[in-house]
Amino acid sequence: MLQGRAAIITGSSQGIGAGLAKYFAKQGAMVVVNYPFESEAEKAKMVVAEITDAGGKAIAIKANVADEFEVIQMMDETVKAFGQLDILINNAGITKDSSFKKMTVENFKLVMDTNLVGTFITCKAAAEIMAEQGYGRIVNMSSIAGLQGNFGQANYAASKAGVIGLTKTAAIEYAKKGVTVNAIAPGFVRTPMTDQIPEEVRNNMIQSIPVKRMGEPEDIAATAAFLASKEAGYITGQVLSVNGGWYM
């Protein structure tokens, strides 16, 4: 489905991002495994090694999505390595949770800078390259929190709601240039972070999900791969909830 396409997947050294990178490589894409800081370099190299050992093609590139200079460098390195840039999956994101009352302006801005401003920076840089090619697919990661809010996540929910508005606007502006822009709003997905939730709390959350299970990184990856495919060319400006029916 993605044979011969070049894809950047931000924040793909671990968690959902790593799952996305491996899935896209299996679908034939040439993958950039992106990581923000040197402390993540080894994890990114492990993801690349797993992909290449399985016969896929991948490289690791360090870039903090909130830094425009680093993002532009990443785009240039991608085109230099693969000759093109066809797909951008904006997966990078952080959390700094606390109640509204206790949340600091610093932590609010920090989350917004990575999750929303970072998505804008990468979208803008990638879309211009794709527009020149006359083809491109951008998929931004929102969240169920961006649709319904979540206690203790005013910064995260606001950033993910902002991603939806950004997605729809970019979709309008780039549609005529052959570039589609969509968003995915994942629900409760199994990651190293969610594995740390106490079992009783996790089980209670699962009981609130109609399909009675957590999502897997592959559930998100399969959705992203479809939206990133040529076959999804008539879909743009949409937000696809992947949450097992938790929020409808």
UniProtKB/TrEMBL annotation:
A GO BP entry: monocarboxylic acid metabolic process
One Gene Ontology MF term: 3-oxoacyl-[acyl-carrier-protein] reductase (NADPH) activity
InterPro entries found in the cross-reference section: KR_dom, NAD(P)-bd_dom_sf, Sc_DH/Rdtase_CS, SDR, SDR_fam
Limits of the Ketoreductase domain: 5-187
Keywords, alphabetical: NADP, Oxidoreductase
EC number: 1.1.1.100
Domain of life: Bacteria
Plastid listed as a keyword: no
Family stated for the protein in its record: Belongs to the short-chain dehydrogenases/reductases (SDR) family.
The protein, known as: 3-oxoacyl-ACP reductase FabG
Native organism taxonomy: Bacteria, Bacillati, Bacillota, Bacilli, Bacillales
